[in-house]
Structure prediction request, 438 residues.
Amino acid sequence: MTSPAVCSVLHILDGNMKKLLSRDWRGDISPACIDRFVARVWQTLYAESESELKPVMYDSDAEVSYVYITHNNLYLLAITKSNCNAAALLTFLHRLVDIFRHYFKTLEESIRDNFVIIYELLDEVMDNGYPQFTEAKILSEFITVGAHQLIAPKAPMAVTNAVSWRSEGIRYQKNEVFLDVVESLNIVVNAAGQVVNSETFGALRLRAYLSGMPECKLGLNDKIMLHAQNRSTKGKSVELDDIKFHQCVRLARFENDRTISFIPPDGHFDLMNYRISTANVKPLIWIEASVNRPSRSRVEYVVKVRTHFKSRLQATGVEIKLPVSSDATSPEVNTGLGSVAYVPEQEAMLWKIKSVQGGKEIMMRAKFSLPSVSALEDDGPVQKKPPITCKFEIPYYTVSGVQVRYLKVLERSGYQALPWVRYITKSGNYEFRLDHGY
Prediction:
């Protein structure tokens, strides 16, 4: 049976696996373990089997477990001797990154320059190897980056309160809460024009500017929630998968009747993340590309874009990246909408469209010259081209159909809060793969 997360020692390493700093809480780990971990990682990398690196590794000789994450060029490594909860330790390491990012802009340089403040933070977030307090906003109220005072500031009540993520005495002249429902659509279309991967990742992002200790209740058109409340599920209802809540949400209440009830932190935070499998969905923006070589020294591209959403909506900030031959020169481009730039250092054309309505079809044609030497290499091996990628945002729309049915704010002083709700769908990993003969 696993015990709660017990971290004996924490090491922070740079991209070359050199130790930047470490914190030993329990004194039961040999200093040689860090060298054993580094050797194990390098051995795997040198063998070009990076995929075999796992975030949790057991060293049977030293009888320790290594739990680590990477962030930019840093390794955050926790070592433990106990049969701990590995998922909890991984969560702790990710929360530690969030805390450092809250305090510092560039993480690697900041660790070298601010090790004193970092050691203070490590002593607050962990006690004898047990994670304690990881709310960056509350930590910043009593651990500051500025010069240290002779008398240490008093820790806010939130540290010892049941509501550890919110301070007492917050006051606003105008009480408002802004809720953004943001969905990222991942689409992969193969060279045959078939959708091989399609899923939606969503987040409910709140900006809460509320006085006191408000109680908030949120209702969605969640099919299970509507069943639990004996409401009709005809029409617009969705099934949410892989739901992850902020710690402020009362999980027992949600499991009982699917009500999302919470006391929000002050300011910005993600209330909830979810995933929805969208099998057999048609991409919101469909792209087709054809290539023709009228001669050995010329190549022509024809790109057709169709928008598959309602005409009252608009996709904004559309950017289509089309790979072209590395030796292409002298581009001639014609398009009915937007602008096209040839970016030779990326071996691509960038087609940017400020906005386009739903139900539209637009085309772009481009002609390039090829050096004569390329004609002699036509019979060589065909190199695989990167896919066409697309970026966009569609305001006032969710691809999954998730809707906020209500957002209520109750506070004992009885003030009226103004809730604002906004919907945005944007592209995630959105790509159209190309034929090898492209």
About this structure: The first strand starts at residue 9 and ends at 13. The chain is about 15% helix and 40% strand. The chain has three domains: 9-159, 176-281+399-431, 285-395. The first helix runs from residue 32 to 46.
